């Protein structure tokens, strides 16, 4: 554990906005004047060169984690840390707040690159969602885009306007419009508007310092936009929509019982091909879902579905047999047991012990033996709540030109809400 610093420096986080020369408020100018040390990239240091200061300067450390060593010394000096755009909008501010106490930090605001881009193009910012792809898997964009919406995309070399246009074409949003806003606030500033077709036909050279604004449009129908993903959209270990996959109606009932919350950690034990885990992760992007599966082919399909639906940032896959495969995972607040591999009693006990007060455990059963084990578990709970539901679905098929409602196997679902420990 890091020891507290006896006389920590005061860190002035000075946002620079956009442009060749920073237009700083009086308070930020005073922070620079008082600073003993100014830290920033070469470009950032140039933007404040006209402001009076006797401070020495140092380049922004690489790797970035080395910055903490400078900010944790015990000299009691004052440090000005320069930040492009707005430090508290997808900037260094969030990282600093996680690593340093609030008493050590002072923030000085400026406009962000997204604000500047919206004003240059004339797009409303209030209903625009900002997505950062910087240092993040490009596939994560699949889980975030919706049709007929506005987005600001903060990108890197792997998420160029051409790559975005290619994805939009594949995802049923080929009528979208993109604005590429380069070197905002500099004499070389350039604003260009593209259709998807134009970008694909003539991929442009784009300066590294840019923001992409996007208004999605098109027939859609490729990416799900509401809970209840069609079974046939999943990759499975059987025919499309078949195999080891919780069917849509059952899946939605499971999720309604789990009631995932933002920042929940969830386990999907016996995840199969990932029907529940994928929906869970897609519609609760701030939660973290751990899918546990031991079957090799189902694991392969689980990985494919994770990529296909773009839940690469918050769906984690653990290969192995439970409960052994659970021991190294973060403790959950919500658990679903969809497959027990003959270990239902052990899994119920182990998962229940891991849950905090208020945690939820949902288990499914098809056989009478599994139902009996769930009932036995309920009888051993002290003041625990159990909610039983049976889902019986019939789906329409055509046989000899006639509509036939073919019943599926009924699935029993039990939700246990934790009040006290297992005994």
Automatic annotation (TrEMBL):
EC number: 2.1.1.132
GO biological process: cobalamin biosynthetic process; methylation
One matching Pfam family: TP_methylase
Keyword DNA repair part of the UniProt annotation: no
Record-annotated Tetrapyrrole methylase domain positions: 11-199
Entry-linked PANTHER family: COBALT-PRECORRIN-6B C(15)-METHYLTRANSFERASE (DECARBOXYLATING), COBALT-PRECORRIN-7 C(5)-METHYLTRANSFERASE
This protein's name: Precorrin-6Y C5,15-methyltransferase (Decarboxylating)
Organism: Hahella chejuensis (strain KCTC 2396)
Lineage, uppermost ranks: Bacteria, Pseudomonadati, Pseudomonadota, Gammaproteobacteria, Oceanospirillales
């Amino acid at each position: 554990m890091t020891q507290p610093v006896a006389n920590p420096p005061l860190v002035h986080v000075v946002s620079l906005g956009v442009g060749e020369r920073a237009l700083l408020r009086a308070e930020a100018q005073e922070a620079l004047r008082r600073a003993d040390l100014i830290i920033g990239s070469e470009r950032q240091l140039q933007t404040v060169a006209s402001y009076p200061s006797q401070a020495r300067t140092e380049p922004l450390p690489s790797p970035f984690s080395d910055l903490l060593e400078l900010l944790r010394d015990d000299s009691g000096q004052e440090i000005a840390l320069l930040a492009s755009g707005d430090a508290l909008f997808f900037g260094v501010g969030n990282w600093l707040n996680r690593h340093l106490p609030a008493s050590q930090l002072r923030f000085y605001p400026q406009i962000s690159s997204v604000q500047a881009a919206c004003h240059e193009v004339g797009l409303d910012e209030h209903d625009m969602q900002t997505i950062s792809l910087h240092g993040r898997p490009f596939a994560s964009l699949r889980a975030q885009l919706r049709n007929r919406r506005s987005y600001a995309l903060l990108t890197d070399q792997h998420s160029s306007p051409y790559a975005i246009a290619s994805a939009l074409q594949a995802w049923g949003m080929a009528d979208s419009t993109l604005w590429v806003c380069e070197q905002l606030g500099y004499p070389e500033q350039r604003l260009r508007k593209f259709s998807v077709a134009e970008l694909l036909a003539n991929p442009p050279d784009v300066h590294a310092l840019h923001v992409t604004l996007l208004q999605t449009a098109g027939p859609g129908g490729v990416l799900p936009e509401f809970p209840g993903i069609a079974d046939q959209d999943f990759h499975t270990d059987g025919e499309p929509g078949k195999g080891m996959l919780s069917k849509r109606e059952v899946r939605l009932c499971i999720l309604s019982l789990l009631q995932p919350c933002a920042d929940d950690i969830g386990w999907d034990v016996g995840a199969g091909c990932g029907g529940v885990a994928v929906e869970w992760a897609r519609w609760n992007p701030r939660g973290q879902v751990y899918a546990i599966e031991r079957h090799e082919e189902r694991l392969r399909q689980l990985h494919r579905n994770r990529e296909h639906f773009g839940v690469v940032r918050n769906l984690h896959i653990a290969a192995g047999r439970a409960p052994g495969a659970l021991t190294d995972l973060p403790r959950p607040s919500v658990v679903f047991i969809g497959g027990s591999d003959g270990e239902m009693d052990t899994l119920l006990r182990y998962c229940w012990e891991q849950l905090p007060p208020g945690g939820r455990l949902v288990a499914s059963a098809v056989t009478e033996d599994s139902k009996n084990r769930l009932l036995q578990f309920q009888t051993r709970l002290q003041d625990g709540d159990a909610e039983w539901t049976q889902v019986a679905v019939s789906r329409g098929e055509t046989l000899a030109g006639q509509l036939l409602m073919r019943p599926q196997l009924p699935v029993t679902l039990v939700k246990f809400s934790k009040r006290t420990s297992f005994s």
